[in-house]
Structures are given as C-alpha cells and as structure tokens.
Amino acid sequence: MRWPKKQVFVIFMCLGIIGCVTVPKGFLKPSDDYLAKRQLQMRQYATTNEEQIMVSVAGVLQDLGFTLGDSETKLGLVSASKKADATNKSQVFAAILFGGLGNNPDLVQQCDKSQVIKAAVIIKPSLDGKKIVVRVTFQRIVWNMAGQINRVETIKDPLMYQKFYDTLSKAIFLEAQQI
Amino acid sequence: MKKSRNYYRIILFLFLIVTLSGCATPAANALRANESQVKLRSIQTRAFDTTDKKKMMQTVISTMQDLDFVIDKADFLLGSVTGSKFLGQAVVTMSVTVRPRGEKQLLVRANAQYGVSSVEDPGTYQDFFTALEKSIFLTAQQVD
Asked: Do B116 and A21 touch (CB under 8 A)?
C-alpha cells in the first residue's frame, strides 16, 4: 500500500493544532514592576490599632457599595465583591454603527454589559511594628449583553486605588472622632 | 479507485485514534494526579526555619499579591490561603498551606491550577518559592 504522504501530513497537523490545552510556564514569577505595584496598592497608617483599621476597611468597602465576603481577622484579611454596570455608550454606539454598516445587527450583543469587581484587603503591622500597612487588590469580570464573559482582568487604574485610600483616610478620621 | 479506498481507511484509523485517546475523560479524572504523589509533594513543598506561622502566612499573602493574585479565602487555624489571578482569558487558582514541621520549622505547600489542568511543572513552583524567599529576606532586611 502506498502511503499518501500529503494527506497524512495534513491530518497530523490538524491533530497537533487541536491537541489538549497546555499550561504556560513562568506565571508565578513576579513581574519587573512589582515594587511599583506595591506603591500603588499599599498605604501606611501611623497607628498600632489593627482592629480599628480593619473595622474602618470594612466600613469603607460598604461605603463603596461592596458586599463583604470572606474574612479572617487573625490574618487581617477582608474580601468583598460588587456588581456594577459596565455599559460603555461609545462602545454600544460603535457596535450599532458598524453592525448596521456590516449588516451584522448582533454585534451589539458583544458589548460590555455588567461586571463583578472583587476586592481583597490585607491589614498587617509594618516591619518595625509602629505602623499598620494596608494593601488592597482589585479584579473584575465583565459580561457582555449576550451573557458571556467578555474579559477578566486585574484592575491597575491608579484612580481606583486613590479613591479607596481617600475614603479610608476619611473613615479612619471619622471613626477616631466617633462619628 | 483502490487508492481512494486506502485514503478512507487511513482517515477512519486516525479518527479512531483521536476519539479513543482524546483528552482526559472527566469522571475518572477527579481524583487523579499525573505525577506520582511523592514527586508532586516534593515539587510543591518547602521548609522554612521559622515558627512564626502568622508572619509566614502574611508573607505568603503579600507574595501572592505581588504575583497579581486576589486573595479569596484564608484560614489561620488550617494555615490555608487561596487566591486567583487572570492570565489572558484563563483563571489561575492557587492554594497555599502553612503547617508546623517539628519544633523549629514551617512547611509551606503550594498547589496551582491553570484553567482545568493542575500545574505540575517544578519550575513554576520554584518561581513561587523564590519569590517567597525573597519576601522573607526583604522582611528580615527591612526593605519594603
């Protein structure tokens, strides 16, 4: 029997391309900008009252519309999540325009619709034990109008972190004054 | 005519290979690890010369945060920390446990999952422990 080389080659190529999903390497290596990330996500407060800061953090998360999730007070962890609208008017407009032009009215279904934002806050004493260090990280999952996940990402917008710490500073002040 | 029959036979044969081998079947896979248990443990575990469980757990948390993980759960009694991060469209989840080993050491074990497959590459875990070592060193040297 003569072996039809070309066809066999094509079939093997297909198998190779389909394959099973492989796990990439090196994703547990810190990126080069991790110190910059720390600066963005961390703040120090000149107090040793860990409990007060933790209570303030929980209050701030509520102020920002988050629902508190898991927490472990012995380690200073508070996590929370929030559902929010993710509609971007210009994106919807563009989708309607190009969808109409390209005769593809379903394109608007691909637009962002809603999102869940997850936050984790860690409160711990600083190295010299004289201050409290707070670190927050945010993630979000965005769904489109068809109910599929559009994208998942870590939030790196400095404004978001700024807003969190502004609110926290205010809350710590308010709580210190018993308001 | 005969030639085309040969093609069909080959295609059928290959199709059988694909369907019969395929990717792993779900039910049988629930309690299976690809690597041997002992080897997997040694890949995922390191010992540290400290007994301060709280500090170690907080260092684990901050290392995971350096690696873009958002911490989902933690339990001091069990010594467990669980977090997740996004890598493109895939979700990486990792849980780390800290427990005492003898009188003078703590044992740290990490295991990670990438999407639906568990991570068994030694290098990946080595990266994590290197970062963890560095964080503890940083802590000792008061750099952060």
From this structure: yes
Query: Can you tell me the distance from the alpha carbon of B39 to that of B45, in angstroms, rounded to the nearest whole number?
Result: 10
pLDDT tens-digit map of A25-74? 888 888 888 888 888 899 998 888 899 899 999 999 999 999 999 899 99
- Whether A8 and chain B come into contact, CB under 8 Å, resolves to yes
A152 touches chain B (CB under 8 A): yes
- CATH label, A43-176, candidates 3.30.310.80, 3.30.450.30, 3.30.70.330, 3.30.565.10: 3.30.310.80
Task: State if pTM tops 0.90.
Answer: no
Contacts of A75 in chain B (CB under 8 A): 54, 57-58, 61, 74, 76
Q: Looking at the complex, does the CB of residue A5 fall below 8 Å from at least one CB of chain B?
A: no
Tokens of A67: 């629902």
